[in-house]
Design a protein that fits this description.
Glutaredoxin; 7-stranded mixed sheet; 7 helices; 41% helix; 20% strand
Length: 166
């Protein structure tokens, strides 16, 4: 009997670990609606598909998030080191005016979109299990997720994923 319990726990742990490192976004995540700076609605799939053939660093952030703001200098350094990479900033600000003011205030260069439901609702945030920001994800040239979960802009896995040749 104990063997079966232990085996079940091992299988459960293995499956949980696989979920933490998906290689593709779910269809529900792709279908989630984001807003552009010009207030146009777009699906995440439409946004990410326009960058196929290029690496994309996704920075999930908010204008009110102190850790997000502290990470910006490192992200700006990465932009200089990797000019070929698309830097896609997705804000979880519920107030779009605060989001837009944050972009200007912190002089954030890159592609900008907003998840209007914030960081606790929606298919995209559910897929990435967003329980902390900032959160960084790297998508490779094929549109596959090459680095799924970093919460520190100094995480060595970000640079590793950006350097990785497809």
């Amino acid at each position: 009997m104990n063997k079966y319990i232990i085996l079940s726990v091992i299988i459960l742990i293995f499956n949980c670990c696989n979920f933490e490192n998906p290689s593709r976004f779910s269809q529900d995540a792709y279908d989630d609606i984001l807003y552009s700076v010009s207030d146009e609605k777009e699906t995440f799939k439409d946004i990410i598909d326009q960058y196929k053939g290029r690496k994309v660093l996704i920075d999930l952030w908010a204008s009110w998030c102190a850790d997000c703001i502290k990470g910006l200098p490192k992200i700006k350094n990465l932009q200089i080191e990797y000019p070929e990479v698309i830097f896609l900033f997705i804000s979880v600000d519920k107030n779009r005016s605060s989001w837009k003011k944050g972009i200007a205030r912190f002089k954030i260069n890159g592609e900008h979109y907003n998840l209007p439901k914030g960081m606790s609702n929606g298919s995209f945030v559910n897929f990435v299990n967003l329980n902390w920001i900032p959160r960084y994800i790297v998508v490779d040239e094929s549109g596959d997720i090459s680095m799924f979960k970093a919460t520190n802009a100094l995480d060595k896995n970000i640079v590793k994923a950006l350097k990785k040749v497809k």
